[in-house]
Amino acid sequence: RPGGRYRLVFEGLDCKCEIWLNGKKIAESDNMYVPVRTDVTELLRCGEANRLKVMFFNAPDEMGQIGYTSRVRTQKARYSYKWDFCPRLPSIGIYRPVYLEEYFAEAEDFDIRTDMYGNFSLSFRYACPAGACARIRLSDGGTAVYSAEFSLAESGVFSHSAALENPKLWNCNTCGEANLYGLEIEFVQGGRALLCRRFEVGFKTLEVLPNEGAPAGAPPYLFVLNGRKTYIKGANLAPFDMLYGRITEEKVRKVLSDVKAMNANLVRVWGGGFIESEYFYSLCDRMGLLVWQDFIQSSSGIDNHPSHSKKFVGKFMETVRCAVSEKRNHPCTAVFCGGNEIARGPKRTPIDESDLLIGKVGEYVRTHSAVHFVATTPCGANFSPDFGHPETNHDVHAPWVYLGDVEQYKFGNRLQCLFYSEFGANGMSDLSSFGKFLSPENIGIFDCKSNAVWRHHGEMWDTYFRDRAIFGDTVRSLSDMVAVSQFIQAEAIRYLIESNRRRAFANGGVMFWCFNEPFPNVSNTSLTDYYGNKKYAYRAVSRCYQNAYASIVYDKLVWNRGERLVVRPYVISCGGEFTLEITATCGGEVLALQRFTGCAEKDRTACFGEISFDVPEGKGIEFNFALCSGGKAYHNRVLLLIAEDGHADASEVIRFLKEDA
Q1: CA distance 418 to 514
Q2: Whole-structure pTM value
Q3: Cis peptide before 505 (omega within 30 of 0)
Q4: Distance in angstroms (rounded) separating the CA atoms of residues 310 and 133
Q5: What is the β-pairing status of strands 232-237 and 266-269?
Q6: What's the confidence (pLDDT) of residue 1?
């Protein structure tokens, strides 16, 4: 069409390649996180075939999970070179959409900002024909609530600010509606549309402030959304697939829908994978899921500090600039992070902005966005908790396994930190999944040491010996094995979430590792397996993340007959008055029945002393909690086991899980 130009757009190229059109090289790329956009108007052949070639170089040499972070030179998904949850399977190719777009004007680098009071502003760089004007329209459900029109010079930077009275606020999941407005920017010349850009915006104010009682100089981890302290109930996401060119919108929607249904309010996009897609971010906008986006670098085990080579810094900053420009306008974007587990020295002391690269990234994020920046995760004085000096536990990681019948609870009961961004435990995949990736001869009771196929599918996360130590020979089938494995995983994760959530807002939130997996594993730390089947831990975490929640503190999982069992009940309420009934039973016989009433602020913990009794003969003691808070009923269940000849009975776990289905 007259005046039109044409641009070829590649949203994702992995990794080093050259692009040729009709025999001429038009672009090259060496960063899978930076789209390629190039004008091809003069090269297009009208009315005849055009030949487009994308020629990829071999996959670059790169390190998997074990190596040297300081020697990384690429901006490519490192997990595909082998991680603890997947084998080595590097990809090459086009992994996101490719298209030809016609354009009559240009506008880029959009910066859209809002607050909870209705103020909004936008700015962008542009170029357009003489005599053009810009029309701005803000709409709610298709109905315009603000509009304006401005004459444009032929190029420059456009800036505008305005205010909307009584806006509907964007809230995160479980805290209210994620209200969105449509924002349309259109360039028009003489009645002809030259350009149209559409965004979904949310009116919100998000601050990250110092935690209650935090030591001076500690990094802030108290999230305040729309003036309200908001406890972070987070989920770490692994990449969606090893072969990421086949990730569908349906799969992304399924994973995020399951996260939302679990009552989470934040997802973290991990630094060994991707800058997530615009589709992902748009879904998070609509679902009310805050997003913590790592930039792309990760620990390596041998050394963990960033590369400062000119080549790497250049590529890394390309990724940062692109990600900030694209993601800062999403209401869901809460945190940009310098990378996963970036640290120095044998103690793995988390890095801060005194590092040349991390300091440069932090400065760029703050200058070009309103998004909170975190140097790395974990962040602060310690990589993992220091129980001797709890005041130095800022954001910490670990453990990722069940520590044991006594040690798991000793750890949870002593833990104090400002934020807990990675921890977890391993559990087996759903029994129905095994036939999809294992041959019949490998579907049975095995361990990863003796079975090479199982070792390929999750060798680091084998639960065989852990569970045998607890249940002995009462595990008699693969079905039993899966049940007790998933029970222990849920027990480990649930208890650590509870121990942190009781400390709100001295503790700002938790993010368990991890929600999903990109490769089918016999066992992994994920709450859902490769095929989307939910493990029992999913149900346990869903309860932990409810707005109101009752739980107990105890000292171990497996008890002996005649021991004095003491538990301490806690309630987290929706605010205001609540009632709680706790029933403890063994084999159907009531051991204790307690009713409590109280009043507490939202997310604050109330404690009710102790419940105690002697452990009777039987297989297990089940606690059932019936909580009423904010006019709604909330239920929870906990099973403590009774040992016989040194082991618990797997049949009690199987009964409990069936009744809890």
Answers
A1: 20
A2: 0.97
A3: yes
A4: 42
A5: parallel
A6: 57
